[in-house]
Amino acid sequence: MLGKASIFLVEDEALIRMMLAEMVEELGHRIVAEAGNVRDARALAETIFFDIAILDINIAGSSIAPVAEIIDRRGLPFLFVSGYGSGGRPEAFRSRPALRKPVLLSKLGETINAILATPAGESSLKIQ
Q1: pLDDT tens across 3-56, in order?
Q2: Crossing angle for the helix pair 65-73 and 38-47, nearest 10 degrees?
Q3: The pTM is what?
Q4: By Cβ atoms counted within 10 A, which residue in 49, 64, 93, 112 is the most buried?
């Protein structure tokens, strides 16, 4: 592990959000903020400090794209999780990593570590 990362988690399904938060903590990282809808996620994406965001692609029928755009503008890394795998990523973020739900602990850990090891500003890490 490359160090303890602070994670911003956006997931609309409360049980899945709780499971992902537990996985992040089991990997030695910490959740600094959570959101279950796009409105709250946008506000948090603008204001909180975090190392990596984990974003569900479909939030209660809405695209996560507006939140991803804010995070991208801030120059912060993120990865997607989705029941649809990498196929549902917003067009502008096709190069961002995407994990299929249910997410395996080992795969989540590998992806977070790969993002942490990627030089700042390099957003084309490809993991699926």
Answers
A1: 799 999 999 999 999 999 999 999 999 999 999 999 999 999 999 999 999 999
A2: 0
A3: 0.91
A4: 64
Residue 38, both tokens: 């796009």
The ranges assigned to domains in the chain are 6-117
**What count of other Cβ atoms lies within 10 Å of the Cβ of residue 7?**
23
CA pair distance 66, 57, nearest whole angstrom: 11
Q: Is the peptide bond before 102 cis (omega within 30 degrees of 0)?
A: yes
Domain topology for 6-117: Rossmann fold (3.40.50)
Bridge-based pairing of strands 62-63 and 58-59 is antiparallel
Query: Among positive and negative, which fits the CA dihedral 10, 84, 102, 90?
Result: negative
